[in-house]
Amino acid sequence: MTDISQLALSILTAVPLFGAVMVMVLNPGCRHYSKRWSLGFSLVATFGALLICYGFEPGKEGFQFEEEYLWLKNPVVYYHLGVDGISIVFLLLTALIIPFSIALSKSPDSNPNLYFSLLLLLQCGLTGTFTALNFFHWFLFWEASLIPAFFLVRLWGGRQRAATAGTFFVFTMVGSIAMLVSFLALYFALGTFEFNELAEFGRQGLLTEAISQHVEIAGLSANKLSVLVFSGVFLGVAVKIPLVPFHSWLPDTYTQAPTPVTIVLTGVMSKMGVYGMIRLLLPIFPGQIRILQDVLLGLAVLTIVYGAFAALQQTDLKKMLAYSSINHLGYCALGIFASVTVVGTEVHWITEKASALNGVVLQCFSHGITASALFFMVWILESRKGAGRKLGGFSGLRSKAPVFCGLCGVAAFASLGLPGLSSFVGEFLIFKGAFSLAPTAALLSIPGLLVTAVFLLRFFQITFCGPCPAESNHFADLNSKEILTAVPLMALIVILGVFPDILIRLINPKAIEIIAHLAP
Amino acid sequence: MLAWTIYLTFIGAVALLLLPISVRAVRFTALATALAGLLISVIEAILYHAIAFQEPMQIIVRKDWIPDLGIEYLLQYDGISLVLVLLNGIIAVSGILFSWNIRHREKEFFSLFLILIGAVYGVFLSFDAFLLLVFYEIAIIPKYFLIAIWGSTRKEYGAMKLVLYSMIGGGMIFFGIVAAYAASGGQTFNLEVLAKFEYPLLFQMIMFPILFVGFAVLAGLWPFHSWAPTGHVAAPTGASMLLAGVIMKIGAYGALRVAMTFFPLGLDYWRGPLSVMALIGIVYGACNALVQKDFKFVIGYSSVNHMGFVLLGMLTLHEIGVSGAVLQMFSHGILSGLLFAVAGTMVYERTGTRELDHLSRMMLSRKIPFVAVIFTLTGFASMGLPGFSGFVAELQILIGVWSAFPWMAIVAAIGILIGVAYNLRTMQTVFFTEPSPDHVMEMPGSSVISLPEKLGACLLISVSLVVGLYPRILLDLIYPSLHTPMMKALIEGGGH
Questions:
Q1: Mean pLDDT of chain B
Q2: Which chain B positions have a beta carbon within 8 Å of A178's beta carbon?
Q3: Cis peptide upstream of residue A242 (ω within 30 degrees of 0)
Q4: What contacts B282, CB < 8 A, 6 or more positions away?
Q5: What's the rounded Cα separation, in Å, for the pair B7 and B33?
Q6: What's the angle, vertex CA B119, arms to CA B114 and CA B125, rounded to 5?
Q7: How do the domains of chain B map onto residue ranges?
Q8: Domain extents for chain A?
Q9: ipTM of the complex
Q10: B433 neighbourhood in chain A, CB within 8 Å
Q11: Which of B376, B395, B407, B424 to mutate to test the interface with A (most CBs of A within 10 A)?
């Protein structure tokens, strides 16, 4: 057992990769096999993630299931994997959403093998990103997950897929390269790519000094230089989340992508950005975040408010949900930046900061499942013949499809943060922390919360209430297969709302550890 | 044993000309010769791994040649040479595979091809400046004929321009080497000895740019790059692969091994302006590639872009930067070879056109999916995505650049971004455009991809992947060689 547990994370990353290769070389004659096989492989990975979760000991300091081998000597790069209480949540989310997306997908007419193997590759890339502890290694998977996503949009997207996929790729690459260049500067100044060691420099406040000793650009002062380096990394994660004003690739990409792919994009890929903030920005650059805190909190507030109001304007349901994703991830950014702002080591502050950080991770998981559930509902509307996905294209469906209406209601109410459902806990914790740490920003974000409720309720009301027009008479309710697909997510939404402790138990020790290390 | 790469290749070339054999036999003989060369270099590289750290410099042959002038027949290698020898072997094999259906004067073609390969092996292995120059000049002649006879699109112009640039470069190199020889007392042409000699400052300041630019012309240093796009475009596929794959590397290798080690003080003086030129090459090449209308011109300019990284990396004089430059030479050799194979053989022979506009109407991703996949992978590799060889190389170069000229790292990053844009644009236009029905054009050629093409493409892309995922295969060869007395002086002279 010890042998296997030492390789557990590598195996977990390799399973979907192996699956992708297998699905690719399967006989293209029988197209349904590729879906079943890929679902099988991703469920094996899910099972693996659950096993790792079972073997994980919450509260133990540092990383577990660590693997570390020398990969390159110059620059010094380690193949370094490990999970902690935070990354395991993201790992579980990946393991949950990918099989969901595969189960949902209809085998496309052209190249079903490629479609499903790209989804598995995406799972491999995401798993790798959430477990890597060395920048080189991390960046490899960060970028590797972009390629399948690009092709899924490019080859199977809507009518404007070419332009959309190109924009998506270029935006993300701009961010990635800025981040890469910044990390190379860090490597040059500090001689390491290891997240732990970089965080140690950040904690002791040596980062600025080290950078200014080694790098000189046009006579910039040490602080400005370190802020420049920080901005590169920030741009990389901000595009991925995305924060306003780096978001303009998102609405089109989410709309054009086939809905099962949108589910992966919003459910897991956007979380890569948040994870990047927690893993890179927070521990390595606390000083720089403090210098820029007003700007950063401003961006977070802007993201929240802008996302909500933009969603209110949309008539295309997918676009509405896309903007609502921007809005929801804005809360995460708010929580993260708020948790750095106040300098102080009193227990009181630690509690508030840890509360915000717990909220962020919980919000990530919860947004992952609620957004996926909502996009699933849109997918159902799309796939039933009729008015497509325009707001107002359907009405009065409650009488025709009561099960569908019920599940959709749960997802919508969860998304707007109703107590008892999962999102409430995350948002509550974020705001609890933010109100004492960064009260102005928290206050300014309130309209976002309210407007979210408005557009989600409006959607629910228009679609399900009122009289049912004649053309919707044949709208079929969810069949048993669809219900079966949706049930795990729905159950989680409720369970997490009532017992958030299942996840907080994992997250909290690590959150406190990170916060304690932040203290100057 | 490594010397046999040269001899065998030349023997193969002569045998092809003299023996009365069928076309089929000609191809297989050429392939066997190239494979033998590759096999020898792979074996030597494996053997070298064991001794790299103790004895990074290995002498193969050392005989007097013209004793009166102190000229020796001296073949010697270190890890840097070995990496490039390996590259040459791989490009030779794949170049022959992609020239499999040359239909005109096959014997001469493969014979000239092998002469070129042999001479390049010679350049990488010579440690006597005179011998190096001899091999360098031998390499120029076949280039002219390969382009002028088997080429396309203004082939005489392209061939002549290339030869004139090479000759002028060769002249400058000759002048520089003889000057160094005379200034050091006229005893020897041995590179190591000449590098150790301390030339007067003024002499170095004048001679360094002559020698460096003489070599760097072939490496596509802006503004002396203009032979590259026209030459690449005019050349037949096999020859484009050699040009971009190894000939440009001769230039970069010579600049590093000869010019920079000879005149460190001159280097110090000229380092700033030269690295700005390299930087301009990066951005200029990328911008040009972004707006070309001809498939091969895109790749031609992308070579200027990538070679700019090589030159910039060398000029950082930082251990990691220089090793990145060597790795980038290897990586660019592999990838540009593959890109030219796609544009020149796999696409052009089937479509009869290289106009991006025409190609975009043929829906090539449906008709030749194998080529689309290969080109997509190569495009990603060439834009420097992690997992492929280009990433590690560019990463190392950028670390070096942060040490030497920090602001340039930011400009170079913009160059990388434009690189992403042109690769993406080419990929989209050529393979993934969906034309409106009245614009569709038929693809005239057959959609079957032949076995040699498949083999060649898979060989190159898998080399790039292996090096990208486990770069130590090559880095363990390169690093010890940066600590030989010859290179160490260079790296410690600058950097920090």
A1: 88
A2: 413
A3: yes
A4: B305, B308, B309, B312, B411, B412, B415
A5: 10
A6: 130
A7: 3-493
A8: 292-520
A9: 0.78
A10: 162
A11: B395
